[in-house]
Structure formats: structure tokens, C-alpha cells
Automatic annotation (TrEMBL):
CHCR repeats lie at residues 574-718. The keyword Cytoplasm applies. GO terms for cellular component: clathrin-coated vesicle; cytosol; early endosome membrane; Golgi apparatus; HOPS complex; late endosome membrane; lysosomal membrane. This is Vacuolar protein sorting-associated protein 41 homolog. One of its GO terms (molecular function) is zinc ion binding.
Amino acid sequence: MAEVEEQGKKPNEEYTDDSEEEDTSEEEPKLKYERLSNGVTEILQNDAASCMTVHDKFLALGTHFGKVFLLDIQGNITQKFEISSVKINQISLDESGEHVGICSEDGKVQVFGLYTREGFHENFDCPIKAVALHPQFSRSNYKQFVTGGNKLLLYEKNWLNRWKTLVVHEGEGTITNVQWRANLIAWANKLGVKIFDMTTKQRITNVLRDDATLRPDMYPCSLCWKDDTTLIVGWGTSIKICVVKERNPTEIRDLPSRYVEIVSAFETEFFICGLAPLVDQLVTLFFVKENSDQEGAVMPDEEFEARPRLDIIQPLPESCEEISSDALTVRFFRDNECRDYRLEHSEGESLFYIISPKDIVVAKERDQDDHIDWLLEKKKYEEALMAAEISFKNIKRHDVQKIGMAYISHLLETGDYDTAARKCQKVLGKNMELWENEVYRFKTIGQLKAISQYLPRGDLRLRPSIYEMILHEFLKTDYEGFATLIREWPGELYNNMAIVQAVSDHLKKDPANSTLLTTLAELYTYDQRYDRALEIYLRLRHKDVYQLIHKHNLFSSIEDKIVLLMDFDKEKAVDMLLDNEDKISIDKVVEELNGRPELLHVYLHKLFKRDHHKGQKYHERQIGLYAEYDRPNLLPFLRDSTHCPLEKALEICQQRNFVEETVFLLSRMGNCRRALQMIMEELEDVDKAIEFAKEQDDAELWEDLISYSIDKPPFITGLLNNIGTHVDPILLIKRIKEGMEIPNLRDSLVKILHDYNLQILLREGCKKILVADSLSLLQKMHRTQMRGVRVDEGNICESCHGTILPSDMAQPFTVVVFHCRHMFHKECLPSSGAIPGMQFCNICSAKKRGPGSGILEKKK
């Protein structure tokens, strides 16, 4: 529970240990408190507060010695009125704050203007406990007020400027409280609460009090209007919320036009001293009594007054929910009773005044600054920072950056260095001075590594020495981390030469450290010393070597390092060399690889794959390289190359006894018979021999093949199975010796017969198709030639290029029209030629289309 801090405690004031206990609750309070001081302190030193009313502009305080003070919001005295010598019971202000009504225990009632002394002054023969002005009292037609003593009197000024009195209610004891809102007056006596409608001049309800055993003078009724139709009643431990509603016109009859509905009624734990609305909630001031449980007490069950409580509750129809509860340490609270406390509120803003005889405490809703204060007090720095960032326009006492700095300090104290470093980015922003201070603070606690990855590295940068300090720290303890920073940080952040020197010094102690060597190569790259970086990458066989060469065009630097590149990655190296022939010539590469023929073969092989002609002068050399390192690709090379010397290739293949390659070369050189002989004698592969004979399609080769195979039954079987489509099988069958046993002879003969039948069927089928097609085309041609041909003025003679029809159609003329649609005048055609009576189209004959398919002759 929150407590009001004791300020200016005098030696004779009561002091209790529990009033100074620290609040350890994790729930944030809803209200904050401060004492109303300045002039109030001076007043309450010699007097005691009895009542107070609140206006948006000022406060009006009544005392036990009959004085009324007007105070500003800070508690400074602005005006003082000597009203009586005894207790002021109630003060009432109109809405404008220009008129005040005051009543006292000795029966005095005064109603006057604060800026004009004219008004109402009356002395009654009984104590007047309550007074209430019409809310619009300052307006001439609303000069009305009520007083409450042993009866409720309504005073109204008539047109003669005289006060007319009306008894609203009497006969139920003393009126203890009156509250006027709009056209409704609520008052309380010992029996209950009544509401009077000024519009109809009728009493519309009577709300009975629940606990009749409580003395009304000791436990007075608290009344508070929430709005123009909602009255909150608190009495003893009971709270009721009453709503004034309009009655249905059909139900009125002799009843008032309005009625009251109690929408919420519930009991509380303690005695109610005051009520005030807070949106849809209630602020409630409680008087608390506790039983003595201290050891050694004379009367253990004796009750004593505890600190009053200010609770915020949420009303429900038959109960309430506690939102917050604060125990208030007011001065001399041990001497106070329930009737000594009052709760007043300012409707313009959420201000609540707790009045006791010797103390006035102001409660107000906590703002964002207060929320942040509480979060910081509870060390919830992250939430405080978030709240400040969200409401940075509304906070007045706090600074987002200062909260962030406090959060960073807290994280460092708790050892959460990574989070602290990460928050630096958000908190420090673009303040380079703060950044540098934080870096040095991290250095002091030995946590430079934590902050390294969050340092500014864009347009805003720290001094180079800061980055160098961190790099040196990593270089001492963490080579991998150092390498990561070099890769991630731009080279412009630090003095590159200084870091290169530092790395070189460390390499003297550990010259084979690959991490340091790689990092040094990257530093040389930043410094544009690419040749040195390239040397290190090649030495380490680093994957980035090819990227470095391409990116910085280092081809001139690798002319003497081609072997190293090939040893590292043949495929990538060859691709790079071939892609950049304009920068490193083929001749240069061949020269460098002369001592490494296996690498030279890889290069020349890929070159040949890309272009069969670029490396033609090395084709002779490639024969030996293929024979030595890649025989499977030798035959494809010999087939595709047109620049390969066949004699040299044949020599190499014969030396190495490469039969297939030798056969190919012999056939390519025209020595097919020798090639066939090698297939038969060395490969002994009849299928390959037959395939070779088919490719060459030479009758002499077939004869040689048959002659060689005639005494070899397996070869005869192979020939019988494959020869039928190229050579007449009878030639082979006649030469087979009688009595020779040939494997699968019957199957082979059957296959020959089947193939022969198939050939006959194919020929017959082709013949039928040919005859059908010929007949179809002949019919089509006949139909075409039989069609008429339109001749009109638009046609011309293909010989003289004049119009085909004469201008005078009456004269006789002759036109010749060929089936090809060319037209001639009769006289423009040449003589019939060799065949009398047969004419041909000159144009189509010239184009070798053959003669026209006929001739049409038009005469007239």
C-alpha cells in the first residue's frame, strides 16, 4: 500500500513504525499523494479543518474556530472570512465560483458573493449542519439555496428582491448533509436519504439507511452526485448507487414523474467517510479500526484507530471489486474518528482531497512520469524505457536517453553484458560522445567483445582509435572473433596499416596460423595490395582466390602461378583461364603447364570441348596426352578433330596397340581392308566387323568379310543373322562347305527367309502406296486443269504486257490461256516448236516447270 510521506513532523506528533514501512507490493498504485502545505500548514497549526469544498479555480476551507479561508490550488491563502466562533459545518459554491454559502454550528447561515458583500445573513436557533446553493445561483432567476437543521428550508428570492422560505421537509430529525445537482436536491437525516425534484416541487424517493444502530452524528452519511441523475450514497459500511429515471407517462397517475432505481448496492469492510466518482469506478475514503494484537497489551481485544484508507473500487450490482487500496499516514490519525474525515473532489480534473482536522492530503491520478518512476523504483528498466519511448511527448520529468542509460548501467551491474551492449544501439543513437564513453566503460570491466558487434559503422562513426582498440583486444585473445570483425567492418573505420603490422607481429609467433593468414590477406585486399593477398590465398588454397582474381582483375599477377591454381582446383582454374583468353593467352598457359602434362591435358581437353579449332596447333600433342592420361576420350577426339595428323596418330595408336583407334584411323586413311582385317583378327568381333562393313557400304569389304568368315562357324552365324539386308545371302550360303557344323543355322536361315518376306511385303506395300498416290495426284491435276479461268480487263499479256482484252470488243481477237494461268495474245506467242500443234508457256518453260498441262484458247 502507498503511504503519504511525513513532512515537517513535529516532536509532539504521533509516530508509528508501520507508517514508515517501505512498500514492497509489486502492484503499481493508481494514485499519488502529497500534502497540501503553504498556507494550510499555518492554518492547521493553530486551528483544525472541519470542512472544505473544491472549485476548479480555488479551494474553500472551513475550520473549527469559525473561519473560512479561500486557497489557491497550492494551498496559499487568498482570502479569509471571520464567520463565527464555532465550527463551520458546510461550505457550498455555485458552478461559477462567484457565490458561497456557509453554515456553522451556532446556527449562522451566510450566502454572499465573493466579489460583492451583499447577500443573505441569518441566525437560527439550532445548529445548521448543511447548506447548498443552486448550481446556477449567479444567474438572476436561480437565486435559490437550501439549509439543513431540524428541517430542510428552501430560500428563493422573489421579484421584490426579498427571500421567500419554503419548508421542504421536517419531522425526521436533524438534516446532516445536502447536495444539489441540476434540478435535484439530495439530503440525509437519521432515517435515510431523500431526493427532491425542483421542477415538479415533489419528493421522488426515500432511500432508507441499512444499519440503524450507528449514530448519525458519529458515522455521517456521504452523498456525491456522479452526474445529473446518478447519486452515490455511502453510510456506515453500505454503498448504494441510485439513478433517477423518468417514469412512463402511462404509469404516472398520482405518482411523481420521476423515480429512483438502485442499480448497485453492496457492503464494504470499513466505515465510509467520503465518496467520489472516477470514470466508472469509485474513490472511497474509509475509517479503519483494528484490534490490538501486541504482546503485553493491557486489553488485547481493545480497538484502536488505524490509518485511513483510500480505495478505488469497481461497483458491481451486488458487490464490488477492489482495484487499489492505499493506507494514508495523516497527522494525528490516532485521535480522529469517522466524522472527522471528509473526501472532496475536483470535477475538472482527477484531484481528490482527504480532509482531516490537522492534515489535508491531495490524491491525484498517476501520470506517465509517475508510472516511469514506479518502474524505475522496481528496477523494471526495460518497461520504463518502453513506456518513455511510447509517451515521449507527454512525459515532463524524464528523458528517454537517461532512462536508457540507467537501464544499461543496471544490466552491467547484473552481468548481462550482451543485452547491455545491444541496448546501446537503441539508447545512444547518434550521440558519438556517449558511444565513446560507453566503449571505455565496457573496456574498464573487460567486456569490449560484447559491444564490438553493435558499434556504429555506417555514416556515423567513432574515432578510428576506438575501433583499433577493440581489434587489438580481439587479436590478443580471440583470433576467430578478430577475423569476423575484419570481415564485417569496413576498412575505413580504422588505420589499416596499424592492424596489418599488429597481425604480422602475431604471425611471427605463429606463422602457420590459417586464421591470421586469411585475415591478413583480407587486410591486404582492403589496402589494394592484391598481389600479396593473392600469394597468401594460394598458399592457403583459399576458396576466395578466384573471386579475388576476377574482382580485381589480377590476371597479370597469376601468369606465373597457373600451376598453383591448377593444383588447388583444376576445374575452376581451367574455367577461369578459358573465360579470360584475352587476358591470358592459350600459348602462355601451355607454356606454363609444359612441365605438368597431366594438367596441360585437362586444359587442352576443355579447350577442345569449347572450340575444336582454337587449339588446333596443339592437336598433335594432344594425341599423346589422350593416349597417356585419358584414353576413353582419345577416339572421340580423333573423330572430332580435323587438324590431327593421321600418320602421327596411327603411329602412336599402333605403338600402344589401341585397336579401336587404329581401326578408325585406317578407315579414315582409306585402308578399309586392313581395318577390317584388324577387327576380325585382333578383336574377333563379327558384329563390329559387320557394322564396319555396313558403314563403308563397299562390296569388296563384304567379300573379304565373307572370305575370312567362311571357315569360322560362329562368324558365319553372325553373317547369316545380319547380312540379309545388305548382301544376297545366297552368296554366303553357296560358299559354306558341305558338312560344316554351324551353330543356330536353322534359326539363321529362318531369319533370312523372314527378312526376305519382309522385304517383299515392304516393296508391295510401297508399290500400292505409290500407285494410289499417283492416281490421286492425276485426278487432282485433271480437276484443276478442267476448271474455267476468268479473263477480264485486269489481266495482261505476259509477252507484250498489254491488257489481254482489246479496247474494242467488237473486233475479233484470240487469247491463249495456259493451265499455269499465264495468258498471251495469240500473235504474241512464238511458233509451236518441234512438235506441231503443241504450245508451251514461255515463262514456266524458262523456270523449268515443264510444259503447261494443257492450253485454253479463247477466240472471238
